[in-house]
Design goal:
The chain is of the alpha+beta class. The protein contains 18 helices and twelve strands. The protein folds into three domains: 2-170, Beta-Lactamase, CATH 3.30.450; 177-294, Beta-Lactamase (2-Layer Sandwich); 301-369, Winged helix-like DNA-binding domain superfamily/Winged helix DNA-binding domain (Arc Repressor Mutant, subunit A). It has a five-stranded antiparallel sheet, with helices on both faces. It has a five-stranded antiparallel sheet with strand order 7-6-12-11-10. The protein is globular, with a radius of gyration of 23 Å. Residues 172-176 and 370-375 have low confidence and may be disordered.
């Protein structure tokens, strides 16, 4: 147990160092894959028919290009990601029966040639347009995701999420302090460097403007505080001053109330470990607080129906395909499963939604897309 704690601590340090230098991601993903007991890892995003790989280790570039150009629309995991909560770990077995996966074109034409057996993925962020994802992948030699692999994945994925969210806010590649400060001043997001007691030692231009506005954060008792007294930043910052292990999974995306459209989130990053110590020492800061606004987006009509009627990911895939292309043969071809399997899922969809025909399903999807639909 002590040996594992040391490995996890070193791995978490490596993950957070990518915040200031994203060229470190391939090496970090390699270590993550090895710790998980797999052969590949990736940070990627997916919409209904498009996607992008942002960082990866282990995948053959040929198969990566094939996935993005052809097989992304056949990937059965997307339906599972739509239904999964942010941070929830999902394996292929959670999404569909393995026997059904084996008969799919996606598995036969893309996964099997690589020896890909299973994956454990989690949404890092979601919107109506798609999801940002982190995935750990297992080879046939590793076997499918088991309880131990899921446990190990659960230890590291929250830290990956924090690093990616903050990295997206920063979008920079230098650890040199002067350049870092200049980069922070150019950000639209508000960035505060704070002591362990939450007293501000640096605030970029956006942060200063946010303090002057006073609706999201303010200075209370000479320390950074949320304008809404129900949210305590000081407790999380105090934990961050103790390092990565002390902070744990707290402070990844702290909601901040504000009397405006959208929502404000705070991400807290310890500055007492790894390469981040340089910045923390230079300013006597224990943590960095990143605050930005993220829009509230309604779920898609198919996702709303999936939750309302308790559809499985496989039924959700068929429902989306029926809505997009219609016809059993076209649906089977679109999602890469047999016509018999499509018919089976259609019968279950009819039973759950109280419909009798594909046309009724399409009308129901359209009704859920309307802003005037009844709850």
């Amino acid at each position: 147990m002590i040996a594992e704690e040391k490995v996890v601590s070193e791995l978490v340090n490596t993950i957070y160092d990518t915040v200031f230098d994203n060229s470190l991601w391939p090496a970090a993903l390699k270590r993550l894959a090895e710790f998980f007991g797999g052969w590949a890892a990736a940070i990627y995003s997916k919409g209904s028919a498009t996607g992008a790989v942002h960082q990866q280790f282990g995948f053959d570039p040929h198969y990566q290009r094939l996935y993005l150009s052809k097989y992304i629309t056949l990937d059965p995991s997307m339906a599972g990601h739509c239904l999964a909560d942010v941070g929830q770990l999902v394996s292929m077995g959670d999404i569909m029966p393995y026997r059904e996966l084996q008969e799919s074109r996606f598995h036969q034409e893309w996964a099997t040639p690589q020896g890909l057996a299973d994956c454990l993925t989690t949404p890092l962020d979601k919107s109506a347009a798609g999801a940002a994802l982190f995935g750990l992948f297992r080879h046939e030699d590793d076997g499918v995701v088991d309880c131990e692999a899921r446990r190990r994945g659960g230890l590291v994925t929250p830290h990956v999420r924090r690093a990616v969210l903050i990295g997206n806010v920063l979008d920079k590649k230098t650890t040199e302090t002067t350049a870092f400060m200049k980069a922070l001043d150019g950000l639209a997001a508000a960035v505060f460097l704070v002591e362990k007691n939450c007293r501000i030692v640096f605030a970029n231009q956006s942060a200063q403007a946010m303090l002057e506005d006073g609706r999201v954060v303010c200075v209370r008792n000479r320390a950074l505080a949320a304008a809404d007294w129900r949210t305590s930043l000081s407790e999380i910052v105090m934990l961050a001053g103790g390092g990565d292990a002390e902070l744990g999974t707290s402070g990844i995306a702290v909601p901040l109330s504000a009397p405006s459209k959208g929502r404000w989130l705070a991400h807290i990053l310890p500055l007492t470990s790894g390469a981040r110590q340089q910045t923390g020492t230079s300013f006597n800061a224990g943590a960095a607080v990143f605050i930005h606004r993220t829009a509230l987006e309604a779920p898609s009509s198919v996702e709303s129906m999936a939750r309302l009627y308790r559809l499985t990911p496989s039924e959700m895939r068929v429902l989306r395909a029926v809505s997009d292309v219609g016809g059993i043969s076209a649906v089977a071809d679109a999602i890469g499963i047999s016509q018999a399997t499509v018919k089976t899922h259609l019968q279950r969809l009819f039973a759950k939604t109280g419909t009798n025909r594909q046309g009724d399903l399409i009308k129901l999807v359209a009704a859920h897309a309307s802003p005037l639909r009844q709850p």
